């Protein structure tokens, strides 16, 4: 656990994002790594454009309206302990099927905690006026979590080799589970024919684009490029551009 007072949050950061940052940096593990990326996403002035884009409103006769340009659709897990518990149970089952007992037990424990939370404090409906702000806060939380996860893209050749090895060892059920898992949209987006970009940056872009499509209905290439540049501390010639993000997304398996 770390102290949220160590965060420096400029006044231009949306209130919901600031609240999410305080919560994450107090409870997240490992706290130091989460704190560092959160600070970058909060303090780098390039993020002003990200928050402005996510909160952009439609205009009527050149005047802003209350209707957001990027209408947000929150995942069920945001508003329901029961839905979150079911998702964690699914992740536990996936990991058990491919033989990863450690992560299976980890997600099972989270699922049990979710069930207890639902019994003790059932989730109230989220007021409509708060939904968009929560979606923007979720974008921040996902960006920080995806950076800290260190997830990387993998080559299709390596995935095929893994499945083949399992079959040769007589582990047919695990091999079938691997095939089913890599066919899911979120996992398949991390499988590439060739590693033309940094595998970690590429996975970050692919995952964040997946969630942007799910939440805002748009892959938001320019916004993701800016966020990735801030998270990975890229500047000058090393920076990702909107076109580079589009190329990454276009060339996914």
* Global morphology: globular
How far is it from the N-terminal to the C-terminal residue, by CA? 39 Å
Structural class estimated from helices and strands: mainly alpha
Mean pLDDT across residues: 83
The stretches of 5 or more residues where confidence is low (pLDDT under 50) are none
Count of separate DSSP helical elements: 13
Total DSSP E strands: 4
Describe the structure.
The two termini are 39 Å apart. This protein is 64% helix and 6% strand. Helix 1 packs across helix 7 (128-149) and helix 5 runs antiparallel to helix 6 (101-120). Strand 1 and strand 2 (63-68) form a beta hairpin. The mean pLDDT is 83. It has 253 residues and is mainly alpha-helical.
Map the helices and strands.
Elements: H1 15-27, H2 31-43, H3 47-54, E1 57-60, E2 63-68, H4 76-79, H5 81-97, H6 101-120, H7 128-149, E3 154-155, H8 156-168, H9 172-182, H10 185-188, E4 191-192, H11 199-216, H12 221-231, H13 242-250
Parallel strand pairs: 3-4
Antiparallel strand pairs: 1-2
